[in-house]
Amino acid sequence: QLEGLCSFLQLSTCPEHLLVRFCSWLLALTPDLSYTSAAILAEQLFLQRVLSLAQPPSRHLMAALASFCSKYSQPFCRVLVAAVLREPGEGAEQTKLVCELVEECLEPDCVRLVLSQVLEVPLSEKLLPVVQAVLGWQEVLPPKLFDLLVMTLCRQAPAFATSLNYAKLVTAVLTMYQNQVS
């Protein structure tokens, strides 16, 4: 029903300045939206906009994304960030957007969720800045997630033999977690 309503209201194509107002209205709702409803809204409101970015997002889109993330970050990450990570190709604007969200909007549990989502797909040059943004967040990773990160970096090292971003990432891991790396 919610998908039908979103389609009827054409929320996926509404002007971005109205999207900000709509998100403000969503945040004021009580009780809060269910996880499923928030996931559907994240998909309907943002997915196509983000996947089609060819230039940096407008300030209106960033404001709408940030406000939605402030309250519904788990479903947002599961829907939108997961889709961006799975999207083939360069996706430079999408990657920058995810990095900005990690650095400025997401709560610690969602930052860890983003990292676990990155580690579920084969690493690519496109995803290295996302991992770097997570490490720049300066929180200690849980041991299992840290071990998975190290194993992934070790396994995929040959594919990044000439990558400056990979070298920076490994250096960051070795610097931040020097006591855990043997």
TrEMBL record:
Source organism, top-level taxon: Eukaryota
InterPro entries xref list: FANCE, Fanconi_anaemia_gr_E_prot_C
GO annotation, biological process: interstrand cross-link repair
Any GO CC annotation of this UniProt entry: Fanconi anaemia nuclear complex
Pfam families linked: FA_FANCE
Domain (Fanconi Anaemia group E protein C-terminal): residue spans on this chain: 1-181
Name used for this protein in its record: FANCE protein
Native source species: Circaetus pectoralis (black-chested snake-eagle)
Higher taxonomy: Eukaryota, Metazoa, Chordata, Craniata, Vertebrata
Gene: Fance
